[in-house]
Write the structure tokens for this entry.
Amino acid sequence: MKYILIVFISCMWLVSCKNKTVEPVKFAGEAQGTYYAITYYDKEFRNFQPQIDSIFSNFDQSASIYVQESIISRFNRNDPTVVADSVFTNVFNKSMEVSRITNGAFDVTVMPLVNVWGFGFTHRSKVDSAMVDSLLPLIGYQKVKLINGRLIRENPAMMIDFNAIAQGYTSDIIGNFLETKGIQNYLVDVGGEVLGKGSKPDGSPWNVGIEKPATAATDARQIQVTIPLQNKALATSGSYRKFFVENGLKYSHTIDPKTGFPVQHSVLSVSVLADDCITADAYATAFMVMGLDKTRQFLAGHKQLEAYIIYDNKGTLDTWSTEAFKRLIK
């Protein structure tokens, strides 16, 4: 009788657990000049938003050009006393790696150009070819090194900018933090740079959308396609939200480090799938610089990356993607 009772109670417990709805922990906020949204499943239903807000703050103290006393800002001001921390070092090393592999399409030394074009921490200048030519000697990832925590530059006027990689790395840091708390199923979104690990309680993957390029910066957001994201990162770079128009020409915030001018090709957005978000973020920017044809050639030799490209084909939106990415699209 005792055995039957134990079996009965055990069965009731299993039915109860099976029918019980597991609610996710969700919260959102603003950081790094954009939004963030976090979702995860936790048996204890803990809210880690205060700790995650601290992660953003600590990251900015290291790598934000908009924080006057951040490590990167002090390097850019040639402060001889500043020493890189682990965040700065990790972002710098990944930046150098991607710069080498993409032959400089990704380059964090573009800060002087970003500033004069009005996409940095200064107001836009009246830019002409002569001004760009005068700044190009300050550009080049080969001209900077990090040695024993010190940033060594060929020219002290050189500056660096991590904006093209910062949000992706922040997503990775938050993911690592959640895992230290025993959380294995989560979705981290920092300004569209998304890291998805594990799955939902029913075993289904996280679903994320890729935005349809807008005509105007103020247009409402629309989803172009949706893909499942499981133990992968997705980052998107686009030219359709941050730009200005002058004399009938559109100038995007994506600067080609080789020419010194905003890119003018047909690519409107690039979404990259990778194992971590810092990698996806960096390559999304690089591919925006490279354009459609060079990106396709590059991806043919780098199978660890998947990409989805939206481009302007004679006035209409068209797309291209790697085969593995194509199979994911819903």
About this structure: The chain is about 35% helix and 25% strand.
